[in-house]
Design goal:
alpha/beta, Barwin-like endoglucanases, 2 domains, 6-stranded mixed beta barrel, 31% strand
Amino acid sequence: MTALSEEGKTEGKKKRDIKQLVAVIPPASQLMRREGPKVREKRIRVRLKPDIPPDELHLSPTLAKYIGVKERAELSVPGKKRMSFKAVIREGIPENEVWVNEDLMREKGVADNSLATVRGA
């Protein structure tokens, strides 16, 4: 008698449609979407030049456009501190390089042709 009464209870309930349940879950693209601007950065080579002022970082126009540099750029060398410079956009500089003052970088312990990350500040 108990088996019949349990069957009656399950028949009395309405089964939910799987499509209705899945419709409540948002798509992955909506979950992974970030609000606000993305911070763009690029791994580059640091070239030391003696004729560049200590507070400037010279970079190519294509690199500046890619990382979104307006006035200032941030240079981050692994194992060293982050450094902020005034960004100067110049033609003739390779896209995968930035040029900075030789004396300042040697003082900070950064050698010529070192790998670093540059981003807009």
